[in-house]
Amino acid sequence: NETQELVDGSLIDLCGATLLWRTAEGLSRTPTVKHLEALRQELNAARPQCPVGFNTLAFPSMRRKDIVDEKQPWVYLNCGHVHGYHNWGNRDAERDGREGRERECPMCRARGPYVPLWLGCEAGFYLDAAPPTHAFSP
């Protein structure tokens, strides 16, 4: 069931550079920036909580996309679990008195990078106007 035909939303790997193939028809269905802001507000209105710290998480507005907020969701890249920011779980760093990027997930104990999660603001990356369900980690 494989084909070499490019369809809207195909990812192309060119020696480490990932390209997203979009058709004119596909681009005509992408949401507007206003619609993306409405989706962000809808996500935040659901008041998602950190499963460990029980604090409410919220994606920052598109204008503040470069500033990490205290309610910013953070994700463990190896397992995909989303939490609020915490500075524990970094056993090697805690022992040495330094802070590193690799942490241990409190849900599944997988170790890996722990980074802030941002809602994408480039409408061309959205294949439809539905609420976002997945994160892209190249």
Automatic annotation (TrEMBL):
Keywords attached to this Swiss-Prot or TrEMBL record, sorted alphabetically, are: Phosphoprotein
Domain called Pellino RING: residue spans: 43-138
Its domain of life reads Eukaryota
Keyword Phosphoprotein on entry:
yes
Q: What sequence ranges are listed for the domain Pellino FHA?
A: 1-38
Q: Which family does it belong to?
A: Belongs to the pellino family.
**Name used for this protein in its record:** Pellino
